[in-house]
Design brief:
Strand order of the largest sheet: 2-1-13-12-14-15-16-17-18
Strand content: 15-25%
Radius of gyration: 23 Å
Low-confidence stretches: none
CATH topology of the largest domain: Rossmann fold
Oligomer: single chain
Number of domains: 3
CATH architecture of the largest domain: 3-Layer(aba) Sandwich
Structural class: alpha/beta
Shape: globular
Distance between the termini: 50 Å
CATH class of the largest domain: Alpha Beta
Helix content: 25-40%
């Protein structure tokens, strides 16, 4: 164990290696292997380019050599904030050629999140698009670099503007042999946690565990060389990257099609053109996709599996998907921290429609416990605790938080579930102070902190409310500091100016004369939940 990264106990690691879960294959060697097996098959497709496995490997080698010439070295952290384009995968594997560590960020993150992540990871480089979805990332990068001394390089896919480096210049570097010293148990990638504190935490994943994550998911989904996966959600999401996602499909010799946006009409054209067999969306997109599937003339006959995850899918909507799509629905419940549950392709329609699946690995250990940490009877609600060959043993550089987030090696997920006799889980809520808005985790304390800095706000509390489309919507309870109370529009504008991502918006604002409090003077969110339930009822 180091201050940065908590490794698995050696006894557990030896057991996982002996069982074949961990195969001792770093990602640089993984790319070499799949290139040798599937070299001339199509690996990646986006709106601009098609790459074979061999072309992907060659481009990754060129970019790795270009990064090495800049001084990026083994162990260095690199922020990756790219949309769904082939450059994401090229860069990702290039970093592994060097032994460097990609830090996944989301296209929607703005300066508040990016400065925090750059400082926490001590990133030496930051890779962005020039403009995406009408947002200029070069302006964001200038601000981040001004606040983070470790950030030596900003690399731009597209027009670099003044003072930045062009990704195409790295691609033009002459390829040369690389001496990668990554070991299977080394840190391979830093993912983002939804988090329950003021800022997002980083989830350390090793080569061994993350590759097993993708492989186990691919086996459950029955992927092979004929599989064609449409990446609809951001590729930096753990769901899109390895559940089975990009890595699972490449490991099976299939093809990954990267969608520029989730619009169903555009995506259905891709499904028809590329003969997509599997894709993954979240509950927010589901009604829109369902309506389009019923009305559209697109040929979706190639689609075999539609994965839905990232948030709890309502039973009613699940049944509509089962009836409305001519393919198998697969519910997915997972987390960047590890545990991945999926319904099986041969599960009954009732199980698929009403559960969030069961663990993908026989080595996943699951406990469902009450508030005192005592196991609850089967079928009763409790907090989900888990450990296994791909579930972290500690967050990155978070020693204090790790002391409470883990019990006897088990990760406390904060999710409230019921476990059925079959092992399937039904997710009923969360004990953590966060909101799962359309699959995006919003840390209530983070947003509350910004709200309470507003001059017209004396006290603020953020709570989730059930929503048929979003899963949960965000409701802010506000005690104004004066006679002129801020409107929802005022507060949304303010949060945007604070640099928060757009998904951390306020769906609703409710004004209070005073904030209910507990006997020790803390905000009484249970009372606010009762107020919320009473108003909605």
């Amino acid at each position: 164990m180091t201050a940065d990264f908590v490794a698995w106990p050696e006894a557990d690691a030896a057991r996982y290696r002996a069982a074949g879960y961990w195969r001792g294959e770093p990602f640089a060697r993984f790319l070499q292997r799949v290139t040798g097996e599937f070299g001339e098959r199509t690996a990646l497709v986006d709106d601009r380019v098609r790459l074979t496995y061999r072309e992907l490997a060659e481009r990754a080698r060129r970019v790795a050599c270009g990064l090495r010439a800049l001084g990026v070295a083994a162990g260095d952290r690199v922020l990756v904030q790219l949309p769904n384009r082939t450059e994401f995968a090229v860069l990702w594997f290039a970093l592994h050629e060097l032994g460097a560590v990609p830090v996944h960020t989301q296209p929607g993150h703005r300066h508040a999140e990016m400065i925090h992540l750059a400082r926490l990871s001590q990133a030496v480089a930051y890779v962005i698009p020039d403009v995406h979805a009408r947002f200029d990332y070069r302006e964001l990068a200038s601000l981040v670099r001004a606040h983070v001394p470790s950030l030596r390089h900003v690399i731009v896919v597209g027009d670099p503007g003044g003072g930045f480096l062009a990704f195409d210049d790295l691609l033009s570097t002459a390829p040369a042999p690389m001496a990668n010293g990554s070991r299977p148990g080394d840190l391979a990638v830093l993912l983002l946690s939804g988090g329950t504190t003021g800022q997002p935490k980083l989830v350390p994943r090793t080569h061994d565990d993350y590759l097993y994550n993708a492989r186990a998911a691919a086996e459950v989904c029955g992927l092979d060389e004929d599989s064609v996966y449409l990446a609809v959600l951001p590729v930096a999401f753990n769901f899109t990257m390895s559940c089975p996602g990009v890595l699972g499909v490449l490991g099976a010799g299939g093809t990954v099609v990267l969608a520029d946006n989730p619009d169903p009409s555009y995506c259905f054209d891709l499904i028809e053109r590329e003969r997509v067999t599997i894709t993954a969306i979240n509950p927010l997109l589901t009604p829109v996709w369902l309506d389009e599937a019923i009305a559209a003339a697109a040929d979706l006959s190639s689609l075999e599996v539609l994965q839905i995850g990232g948030a709890r899918l309502s039973d009613d909507l699940a049944r509509q998907v089962v009836e409305g799509f001519g393919c198998t629905l697969q519910q997915v419940f997972g987390m960047a921290e590890g545990l991945l549950c999926m319904t099986r392709l041969d599960d009954s329609p009732e199980v698929i429609g009403t559960t969030q699946g069961k663990p993908v690995s026989e080595a996943d250990e699951v406990r469902v416990v009450d508030e005192c940490g005592v196991g609850v009877p089967e079928g009763c609600v409790g907090e989900l605790l888990t450990k296994g060959p791909y579930t972290l043993r500690g967050y990155y550089r978070a020693t204090e938080h790790n002391a409470t987030a883990f019990v006897d090696g088990f990760y406390r997920t904060g999710d409230l579930v019921r476990r059925l006799p079959s092992g399937h889980l039904v997710v009923v809520g969360r004990s953590k102070d966060q909101i799962n808005r359309a699959g995006e985790k919003i840390s209530a304390p983070e947003v509350e902190g910004h709200l309470q800095a507003h001059p017209a706000v004396r006290l603020a509390a953020l709570l989730p409310a059930p929503d048929p489309v979003l899963g949960e919507r965000s409701v802010a309870f506000i005690v104004p500091s004066g006679a002129c109370a801020p409107t929802r529009e005022d507060l949304v504008t303010y949060l945007t100016a604070c640099g928060l991502a757009a998904y951390k918006t306020l769906d609703e604002v409710r004004l209070l004369n005073e904030m209910p409090s507990t006997p020790v003077g803390k905000t009484d969110k249970r009372e606010l939940s009762r107020l919320l339930a009473g108003a909605d009822g």
